[in-house]
Amino acid sequence: MLYILISVAVILFITHVFLLFTSFSNASLISPRYFYSHLTLWLTGLSVFALATLFNGTNQSGFLDYFDTWVKRSYILLFTFGLSLVAHCLVTFLVLPLLRKSKA
Known about the structure:
Blueprint: H1 2-21, E1 24-25, E2 28-29, H2 31-55, H3 62-65, H4 70-103
Antiparallel strand pairs: 1-2
Helix pairs in contact: 1-2, 2-4
């Protein structure tokens, strides 16, 4: 079960990166693809949260054993939300204006 959840998290993150990079076309944003990019990032965070909840304290992973309290596990969700927010701000205020400027 541990390796299945790790595989799911890795596949979701790779999908997130792929969708993010392919959501730009001709200095514009392909909204559904961009949304799914964020969705897969959030699902990745939830997968890691599930891993930490199920396998902390089992000595199967030093990384997962660190998340031994609910407060520490909530940091996973907080980090995921923060990463999504920072990425959205970078795309909105940096990437899209640069793409539009280079197209003009």
